[in-house]
Write a structure and sequence with these properties.
Layout (H helix, E strand, L loop, with lengths): L2 H13 L6 H17 L1 H14 L5 H18 L5 H15 L7 H15 L3 H10 L9 H13 L1 H4 L3 H8 L9 H23 L12 H16 L7 H15 L4 H17 L8 H16 L4 H17 L8 H20 L1 H8 L8 H17 L1
Helix pairs in contact: 1-2, 1-3, 2-3, 2-4, 3-4, 3-5, 4-6, 5-6, 5-7, 6-7, 6-8, 8-11, 10-12, 11-12, 11-13, 12-13, 13-15, 14-15, 14-16, 15-17, 16-17, 17-18, 17-19
Length: 380
């Protein structure tokens, strides 16, 4: 098929995207994707042109077109030329931030396009996103979401940009008053930290092997200060959990002396949340990461916090697992991981805590204790 016939076919399909029948819409998107598999550049350019020329098209239909574009890009982004990539990036960026209100299906679809292109053209995508970060102004939630998603999808590509991203975001962190914005910041900081840790763990494959933890440590500590001392005190459970999820990987990037200085407050702060949340998986996962960070810097604070840690973790492992919920099972695994970390650092104290509990008359306590002992031995 010639380029003009591809464009004509794609345009005909796009004109049918507004059909009131959801089945027809789905068929149109599927056909666009099939066309895009064969002729990705022409199909994507036609979609871009269509959205640009139909500015009044309602957002559900815009989202449908963007989702079709993302599906094509997920397997065909490598076939794009730089000009086409740039055009698509500008379109998706514009669609994503066209309204300040949260219109999640539309904004997520546009974000998905940017992430898909970012696997192949990360510099262009990051440059566009950085242009969306204005001094003294809170970023659009969708921009934060996209930066977070890119950190997962392409850590090697994003991490070199992190110092610039953090220097733009941190000055406005304190301006975030709405929980939705704060949660978006937490998610982004979590993903940035995870991306940085992945990068640092694979420097032999990284584009810049000279990157060190110090490049992020000061900025991450500034963010930690806001998250732990201000946002963790929120009454909103969702925000508290978002903060906790971020603090786990962030703890690995804190300067060693700062982490040691914060542990006497950080560990009790996390443990206190066990009483406030019935769903404890994210607490246990984050606690495990913080303990690993503490052990890696040779923390002496762990010893003074050990009794409280062991008591809280032991009570978690002794809770009957009656639910088949994946999160409940995952929590058990994370709690056991915490015990393993402590066993590597303070084995004598751990045994002194566990052994007397094997003699108790409470069956659940004995079973839980045996579970810990078995896990620690198997992990040795």
């Amino acid at each position: 098929m010639t380029e003009s016939s591809i464009k004509k076919l794609a345009s005909t399909l796009l004109d049918a995207i507004t059909d009131k029948d959801p089945m027809v819409q789905e068929q149109v998107c599927s056909a666009l994707c099939s066309l895009g598999e064969v002729r990705p550049v022409e199909t994507l350019r036609t979609c871009e042109e269509y959205l640009r020329q139909h500015d009044k098209l309602a957002h559900p239909y815009r989202a449908a077109v963007l989702r079709a574009m993302e599906r094509v890009l997920s397997s065909r982004a490598s076939e794009l030329d730089k000009d086409t990539a740039s055009t698509i990036i500008l379109l998706a960026s514009s669609e994503m931030t066209k309204t300040k209100d949260l219109v999640w299906d539309w904004q997520q679809a546009a974000s998905g396009v940017l992430v898909a292109v970012g696997r192949q053209f990360i510099s262009k995508v990051m440059e566009e996103l950085l242009r969306k970060l204005h001094p003294g102004t809170l970023p659009h939630c969708a921009v934060l979401h996209t930066l977070a998603s890119l950190s997962v999808a392409n850590a090697f590509g994003v991490v070199p940009f992190l110092p610039s991203v953090l220097s733009s975001l941190l000055p406005v962190l304190g301006m975030a008053k709405q929980d939705t914005v704060r949660v978006a910041f937490c998610s982004a900081l979590q993903r940035f930290s995870e991306g940085a840790l992945e990068y640092l763990a694979n420097l032999d494959r990284a584009p810049d092997p000279t990157v060190r933890k110090d490049a992020f440590a000061t900025d991450i500590f500034s963010a930690y200060d806001v998250l732990f001392h201000q946002w963790l005190q929120s009454r909103e459970a969702k925000l508290r959990l978002a903060v906790v999820e971020a603090l786990g990987p962030m703890s690995h990037l804190l300067p060693s002396e700062r982490l040691e200085e914060q542990l006497p407050k950080l560990l009790p702060g996390i443990l206190a949340l066990y009483k406030k949340h019935s769903e404890t998986f994210y607490l246990s996962k984050s606690l495990g990461q913080i303990l690993e960070a503490a052990v890696s810097v040779g923390s002496r604070t762990l010893e003074t916090q050990l009794d409280a840690l062991l008591a809280a973790l032991h009570s978690q492992i002794c809770v009957p697992v009656e639910s088949s919920s994946p999160l409940v099972m995952s929590n058990q695994k994370e709690v056991l991981r915490c015990f393993t970390v402590l066993a590597c650092s303070l084995p004598d104290r751990l045994l002194a805590f566990l052994l007397p509990r094997l003699d108790t008359s409470n069956e659940r306590t004995r079973v839980g204790t045996l579970q810990v002992v078995r896990h620690v031995i198997n992990s040795a």
